[in-house]
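for the writeup, i need someone to sanity check this before i put it in the appendix. the sequnce is what the collaborator sent (i think, or maybe the updated version? ugh). structure was predicted straight from it, no edits. if anything looks off just tell me and ill rerun, i have time this weekend
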Amino acid sequence: MANRAEKVANEVKKVLSGEVSRIALDNGFGMATLTAVRMSKDLQVAKIYISSFGSNKGPGELIDLFNNHIGELRYLVGKQLRLRFTPELRLFFDDTLDQIEHIQELLDKADVKGLENKDYNIPEDEE
């Protein structure tokens, strides 16, 4: 059953990817990407994860924008996929890239040079 959910999730992602990008650009949100779709086992609910680049607007505003277009997005899924029921779409902001950037900043601030100056008694190759 999980295999079917994964297949349907991939198809939902294909159907909605272009539309997500178009809606974001048309409304001044820069580039938005549908990063993941997770389907419930019964295929009744699709969790849609969206990421945004090049926008000075917050994640809440982005999700509000897509919630205003939820009927249009769900219609596309229902029209293009042959499912008994069109899944309910739930939208979430994917902040994975922000988290990666934050971790990288922390690593950059770490005292890496202090580690380079320590003598670890590593034998050098003999010639």
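The beta strands are 31-39, 45-53, 88-93. The first strand starts at residue 31 and ends at 39.
thx in advance!!
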